[in-house]
């Protein structure tokens, strides 16, 4: 059907699509989790916030699970290396992703204020910690992670958990948190009403500007303070998935090469900045739906910028650069990539179709009045 | 404990914990869909109230299932990195397709199930409910396709260029006979769990003389659904035994504590005390012919015993060593294909890997070490022997109990207190049976993570034992706390009963509300 090289490119793009799908869809769940204590001062206000995502969080969480599954199926060496290398960080993310549904479901099951306060706290943590760690992970991807492979391709991680929390990675973590808060606030502003929506607009427009500032700061840092990685010599895009067959060097400004070679790709960081600035303005003007669209575009821009800067690298190695994982040597076999592509082509449009239908059925705002009218909201 | 033991313990605990919620989701989603179908067909609102009540309990259970399922998928990467690297090309695909085809369906529509009552027409809502049930069952299908590949690794071969297993035939993986029998067996077990849940709680209400209308109807539906499912579990459980006989002879020998090969017609050991050290089973009570019928579908074929299978394993270890020597000497990406002369040896490469547990330079292994590695292919016989027997006894009990329930409800005599009490106290048993089934299938697979291809110890990540100990401790503490909260909440909503359960309502105002 397609050559191995083209299939790998398609799957690299699909990885981006899934990451963006996750950041846009699950992003507003995470953002609502972070924002709930701030936009909701009373129990009713908090329930308004929770019930904006009440009917859709399960579906959104699947973007995360599908992302993991797709990395496993299409990029097994990347899946094995990143998940085991960042072991403790992944544990924190997992606990976050377990806490979130549980907090949401359990919170409303008792009237006691102390019970609800506990779950509110856990719900907040379940939004903040994964958001931060995803950004930190990208920060470490850009710097390269300390790892190598042995003769039998056993992956060996040479770093520590605390090593992940370096200044540049933490800056990327904050970019991610600001982005998620912007996305969550835009969603809340478009779905809630009254004081909750008002507060969401204020937090969201501030977060969007913080995001722009941090994103630009990270960009400057990448240009002048973080060495990029460059493959030396010709690359066989259809070669075997074996990370031992190339030479890689580290070069200052290396992550900007793609933008220099194909200037049109500069659209990605521009979309990130324009989307966030636009979302900030739209939130201030009260155009929440426009803000959600612009914010989603901004999120897509941020994720795409990170991915494009790294290309063709997926996970560079700082200790053995030549063993870095790249698009050309860390994929599944051609057979698996083809079969998975067929599955995606058939099912992803169906998924998008029924997700859109569900959001359409659930259209309309969540109001305090409706929550207070009865005890019959699910969350 | 070392990383291998800790990782295995963590996987076992988190998988068994996740599997507390999965069978109930499978069974209850279908039962709710059946009840809602009755509501839509008859138009009687009592059935809608029943759907909403069971739906509330389903919601709590579903959230726990979603939450603990995330751990399962990600643990392959965190704790079993070399496994993921070595077979991700094959194993990852069904997992990803599960997310794409099944879990998205189930999870997207479950929200609409709760929030969509007044936003959808009756028929639309019914379709949503069926899609949730369909999604959970598809989900089980793909997970079991992946799981069955570990038990019977078909459609794959070793690629020396990438030093890993790669897919040769997706159709073989998809239509793996083990996957088919496992799927039917596992979802049927889920249906039994759902039926027992509904019947036990219904019986509790009738005994307390509460919510009789909903309770009686629920018991009736659960009785017939439960009987059909319980029969299906046992009949198709037999099918699992049959395929195990083809592909995993060691597992069936261990389940039977059968040390010597049974000449045809092989008899089934009903009872006995297996002694793994002495390689013998004391006080055996045997039923003639039965095992031969289960395992070979014949009365003229022998069933291999543990000692003979160990001898075979020893031969395969020796046979795999040349392949191991070859792959450890070729440079990265140097060889395009396995030399023809080594193809036979390559099939036993996994057996050669068994020696890695004993010494790193396995090409120098002594005769004694090869024999030791061969002995390591024997799983824990007493545990398998007893797990299997208790599971089968429970399966028989379920048929009897649902048979009685079906008879009584067809006679409209469900109100017998002895029956109601029996039904009520049987509530935990399907979970016991399901967990034992998991132990037989997965603990019985040891020492293999992929049967004959990769030993479990080889699949772990290179992470410090302290990290795994930390995550294991975190999961134990966290999951225990959640289990307590989950049980308290379920008990609370059961006690409150149908009327007090929070009923889903439309969000917001000014939206056209379809007639209901």
By DSSP (H or I, 4+ residues per run), the number of helices of chain B equals 17
State the low-pLDDT regions of chain A, or none. none
Show unreliable segments of chain B: 500-516
Number of strands of chain A: 6
Q: Please tell me the overall pLDDT of chain A.
A: 91
Mean pLDDT of chain B: 87
Shape of chain A: globular
Described by its quaternary structure, the protein is heterodimer
What is the topological layout?
The complex is a heterodimer of chains A (379) and B (516).
Chain A: H1 4-39, H2 43-53, H3 57-74, H4 76-85, H5 87-107, H6 113-143, E1 147-149, E2 155-157, H7 161-164, H8 167-191, H9 194-224, E3 227-232, E4 247-252, H10 257-261, H11 267-285, H12 288-310, E5 313-315, E6 325-326, H13 334-361, H14 368-373
Antiparallel strand pairs in A: 1-2, 3-4, 5-6
Helix pairs in contact in A: 1-2, 1-3, 1-6, 1-8, 1-12, 1-13, 3-4, 5-6, 6-8, 8-9, 8-11, 8-12, 9-11, 11-12
Chain B: H1 3-42, H2 45-79, H3 81-115, H4 122-151, E1 156-159, E2 164-167, H5 170-174, H6 177-208, H7 212-247, H8 249-255, E3 268-275, E4 280-287, H9 290-296, H10 306-329, H11 343-346, H12 349-353, H13 367-375, H14 381-410, H15 417-425, H16 429-442, E5 448-450, E6 454-455, H17 465-500
Antiparallel strand pairs in B: 1-2, 3-4, 5-6
Helix pairs in contact in B: 1-2, 1-4, 1-6, 1-16, 1-17, 2-3, 2-7, 2-17, 3-4, 4-6, 6-7, 6-15, 6-16, 7-8, 7-14, 10-13, 14-16
Structural account:
The complex is a heterodimer of chains A (about 375) and B (about 525). Helix content of chain A is about 70%, strand content about 5%. Chain A is mainly alpha-helical. In chain A, helix 1 runs antiparallel to helix 6 and helix 8 (about 165-190) packs antiparallel against helix 9. Chain A is globular. The termini of chain A are far apart. The mean pLDDT of chain A is about 90. With about 525 residues, chain B is mainly α. Chain B has helices spanning about 5-40, 45-80, 80-115, 120-150, 170-175, 175-210, 210-245, 250-255, 290-295, 305-330, 345, 350-355, 365-375, 380-410, 415-425, 430-440, 465-500, and strands at about 155-160, 165, 270-275, 280-285, 450, 455. The longest helix of chain B has about 40 residues, at about 5-40. At the A-B interface, helix 3, helix 4, helix 5, strand 2 and helix 13 of A face helix 2, helix 3, strand 2 and helix 17 of B.
């Amino acid at each position: 059907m397609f050559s191995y090289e083209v299939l790998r490119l398609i799957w690299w793009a699909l990885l981006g699509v899934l990451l963006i799908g996750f950041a846009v869809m699950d992003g507003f769940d995470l953002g609502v989790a972070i924002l709930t204590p701030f936009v909701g001062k009373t129990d009713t206000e908090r329930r308004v916030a929770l019930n904006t995502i009440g009917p859709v969080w399960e579906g959104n969480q699947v973007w995360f699970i599908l992302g993991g599954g797709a990395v496993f199926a299409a990029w097994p060496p990347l899946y094995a290396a990143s998940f085991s290398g960042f072991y403790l960080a992944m544990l924190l993310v997992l606990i976050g992703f377990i806490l979130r549904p549980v907090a949401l479901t359990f919170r409303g099951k008792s009237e006691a204020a102390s019970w609800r306060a506990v779950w509110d706290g856990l719900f907040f943590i379940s939004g903040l910690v994964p958001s931060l760690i995803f950004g930190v992970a990208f920060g470490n991807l850009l710097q390269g992670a300390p790892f190598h492979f042995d003769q039998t391709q056993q992956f060996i991680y040479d770093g520590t958990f605390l090593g992940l929390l370096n200044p540049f990675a933490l800056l990327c973590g904050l970019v991610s948190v600001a982005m998620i808060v912007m996305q969550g606030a835009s969603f809340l502003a478009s779905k809630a009403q009254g004081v909750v929506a008002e507060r969401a607009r204020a937090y969201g427009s501030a977060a969007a500007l913080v995001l722009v500032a941090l994103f630009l700061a990270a960009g400057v840092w990448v240009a002048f303070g973080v060495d990029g990685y460059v493959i030396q010599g010709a690359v066989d895009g259809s070669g075997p998935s074996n990370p031992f067959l190339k030479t890689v060097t580290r070069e200052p400004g290396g992550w900007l090469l793609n933008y220099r070679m194909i200037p049109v790709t500069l659209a990605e960081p521009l979309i990130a900045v324009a989307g966030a600035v636009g979302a900030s303005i739209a939130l201030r003007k009260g155009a929440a739906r426009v803000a959600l669209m612009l914010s989603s575009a901004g999120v897509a821009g941020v994720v795409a910028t990170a991915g494009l800067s790294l290309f063709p690298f997926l996970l560079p190695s700082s200790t053995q650069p030549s063993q870095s994982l790249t698009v050309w040597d860390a994929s599944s076999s051609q057979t698996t990539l083809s079969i998975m592509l067929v599955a995606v082509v058939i099912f992803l449009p169906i998924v998008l179709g029924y997700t859109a239908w569900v959001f359409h059925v659930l259209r309309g705002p969540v109001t305090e009045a409706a929550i207070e009218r009865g005890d019959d909201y699910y969350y | 404990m070392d990383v291998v033991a800790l990782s295995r313990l963590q996987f076992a605990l988190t998988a068994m914990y996740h599997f507390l919620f999965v069978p109930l989701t499978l069974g209850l989603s279908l039962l709710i869909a059946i009840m809602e179908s009755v509501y839509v067909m008859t138009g009687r609102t009592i059935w809608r109230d029943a759907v909403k009540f069971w739906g509330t309990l389903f919601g709590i259970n579903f959230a726990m299932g979603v939450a603990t399922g995330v751990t399962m998928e990600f643990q392959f990467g965190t704790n079993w990195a070399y496994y993921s690297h070595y077979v991700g090309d094959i194993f990852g695909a069904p997992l990803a397709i599960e997310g794409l085809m099944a879990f998205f369906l189930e999870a997207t529509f479950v929200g609409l199930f709760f929030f969509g009552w007044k936003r959808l027409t009756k028929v639309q809502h019914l379709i949503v409910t069926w899609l949730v049930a369909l999604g959970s069952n598809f989900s089980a299908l793909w997970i079991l396709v992946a799981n069955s590949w570990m038990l019977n690794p078909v459609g794959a071969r070793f690629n020396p260029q990438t030093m890993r297993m790669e897919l040769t035939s997706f159709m073989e993986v998809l239509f793996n006979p083990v996957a088919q029998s496992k799927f039917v067996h596992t979802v049927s077990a889920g249906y039994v769990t759902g039926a027992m849940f509904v019947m036990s709680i219904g019986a509790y209400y009738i005994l307390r003389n509460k919510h009789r209308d909903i309770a009686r109807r629920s018991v009736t539906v659960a009785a017939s659904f439960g009987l059909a499912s319980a029969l299906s579990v046992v009949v198709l459980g037999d099918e699992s035994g049959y395929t195990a006989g083809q592909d995993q002879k060691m597992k069936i020998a261990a389940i039977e504590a059968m040390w010597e090969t049974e000449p045809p017609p092989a008899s089934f050991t009903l009872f006995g005390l297996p002694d793994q050290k002495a390689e013998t089973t004391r006080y055996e009570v045997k039923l003639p012919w039965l095992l031969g019928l289960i395992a070979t579908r014949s009365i003229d074929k022998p069933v291999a015993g543990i000692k003979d299978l160990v001898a075979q394993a020893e031969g395969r270890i020796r046979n795999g060593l040349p392949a191991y020597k070859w792959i450890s000497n070729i440079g990265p990406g140097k060889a395009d294909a396995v030399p023809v002369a080594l193809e036979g040896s390559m099939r036993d490469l996994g057996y050669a890997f068994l020696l890695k547990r004993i010494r790193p330079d396995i090409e120098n292994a002594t005769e004694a070490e090869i024999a030791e590695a061969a002995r390591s292919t024997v799983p824990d016989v007493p545990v398998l022997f007893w797990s299997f027997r208790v599971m089968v006894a429970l399966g028989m009990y379920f048929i009897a109990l649902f048979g009685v329930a079906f008879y009584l409800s067809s006679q409209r005599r469900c109100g017998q207190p002895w029956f109601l009490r029996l039904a009520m106290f049987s509530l935990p048993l399907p979970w016991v049976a399901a967990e034992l089934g998991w132990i037989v299938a997965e603990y019985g697979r040891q020492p293999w993570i992929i049967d004959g291809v990769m030993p479990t110890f080889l699949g772990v990540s290179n992470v410090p034992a302290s990290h795994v100990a930390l995550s294991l401790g975190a999961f134990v503490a966290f999951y225990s706390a959640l289990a307590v909260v989950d049980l308290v909440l379920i008990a609370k909503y059961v006690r409150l009963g149908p009327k007090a359960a929070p009923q889903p309502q439309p969000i917001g105002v000014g939206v056209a509300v379809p007639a209901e």
